[in-house]
């Protein structure tokens, strides 16, 4: 299984046509599952050959963008409630405070659920909804809203992927709180050190990917703010992780983000 996450930069100008972006990732990355963030939400149906789930209308009337989970050759089913409790079971609704920023879907292959994917965009607002320039408030808040998922009958096979708007050093506590593993960090030894990596405290152990080009100058900040986290069961099946401009030359002509791709056996 090949899973990717990519911010399409459709919340701000310049915007590339949605059809071109879907075709590029389909032809170039060839994912089985992809989490799009800052994506223009489809008006009716996704392009031919894709299944997808999203929140109609996006973030709001003037912001028709959000998170989209899409797949090809797999079944993608929205998850809006889960069953919790081993003895006294009950059904609990999943109610993220920013619904278009956090979307949950089951990915089914044949008749078996391969994973439940949480597509997540870290809104750059604080707990009062005021702009703060990072996702260090919104990402934990959204995951806390989805806490029933992590204690449900789906808890063993969960992936959280998207643009967190956080640097790597900010994500350790989130991974620990929800018993998730960072797929990029797990495969860090497979890559050279990312020179100039922002918000990184790993020194010569850094194996991060350049996923966000912060600015158009030749000296644009090198940032990884897009992540793929997985529960230990799925992390045990992780084969490789790649992405960034080294893998996808010319990616900055499409978006100010580059895809992160994880392959599972």
State the gist of this model.
With 265 residues, this protein is of the alpha+beta class. The chain has six helices and 16 strands.
Distance between the termini: 6 Å
Helix fraction, binned, reads 10-25%
Radius of gyration: 17 Å
What would you call the structural class?
Answer: alpha+beta
Mean pLDDT: 93
> In the CATH hierarchy, what is the architecture at level 2?
4-Layer Sandwich
CATH topology: Deoxyribonuclease I, Chain A
Order of helices and strands, N to C? EHEEEEEEEEHHEHEHEEEHEE
Strand order of the largest sheet: 3-4-2-1-16-15
Shape: globular
Strand content range = 25-35%
- What's the CATH class label? Alpha Beta
CATH homologous superfamily title: Endonuclease/exonuclease/phosphatase
Biggest sheet record: 6 strands, mixed
Low-confidence stretches: none
Number of structural units classed as domains: 1
Number of helices: 6
Secondary structure tally: strands: 16
Folded structure, characterized:
The protein is an alpha+beta fold. The protein has a single domain (2-264), classed as 4-Layer Sandwich (Deoxyribonuclease I, Chain A), CATH 3.60.10. The protein is built from six helices and 16 strands. It has helices at 18-29, 138-145, 147-150, 172-177, 183-186, 232-235; strands spanning 2-7, 33-40, 51-53, 65-71, 75-78, 81-84, 90-93, 102-109, 112-121, 158-163, 181-182, 212-214, 221-223, 226-230, 238-243, 260-264. A six-stranded mixed β-sheet has the order 3-4-2-1-16-15, with no helix packed on it. The model has no long low-confidence stretch (mean pLDDT 93).
């Amino acid at each position: 299984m090949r899973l990717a996450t990519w911010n399409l930069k459709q919340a701000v100008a310049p915007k590339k046509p949605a059809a071109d972006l879907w075709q590029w990732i389909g032809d170039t990355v060839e994912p089985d599952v992809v989490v799009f963030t800052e994506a223009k939400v489809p008006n009716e149906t996704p392009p031919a050959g894709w299944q997808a789930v999203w929140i109609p209308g996006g973030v709001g009337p003037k912001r028709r963008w959000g998170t989209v989970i899409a797949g090809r050759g797999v079944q993608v089913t929205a998850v809006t409630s889960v069953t919790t409790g081993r003895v006294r079971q009950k059904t609990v609704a999943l109610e993220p405070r920013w619904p278009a920023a956090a979307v949950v879907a089951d990915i089914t292959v044949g008749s078996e659920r391969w994973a439940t994917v949480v597509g997540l965009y870290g809104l750059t607002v604080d707990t009062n909804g005021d702009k703060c320039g990072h996702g260090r408030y919104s990402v934990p808040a959204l995951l806390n809203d989805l806490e029933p998922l992590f204690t449900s009958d789906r808890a063993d096979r969960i992936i959280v992927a998207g643009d967190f708007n956080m640097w790597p050093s900010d994500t350790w506590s989130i991974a620990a709180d929800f018993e998730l593993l960072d797929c990029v960090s797990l495969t860090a030894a497979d890559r050279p050190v990312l020179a100039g990596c922002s918000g990184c405290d790993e020194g010569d152990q850094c194996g991060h990917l350049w996923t966000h080009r912060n600015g158009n100058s030749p000296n644009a900040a090198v940032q990884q703010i897009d992540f793929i986290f997985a529960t230990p069961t799925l992390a045990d099946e992780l084969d490789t992780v790649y992405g960034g401009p080294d893998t996808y030359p010319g990616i900055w002509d499409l978006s100010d983000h580059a895809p992160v791709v994880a392959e599972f056996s």
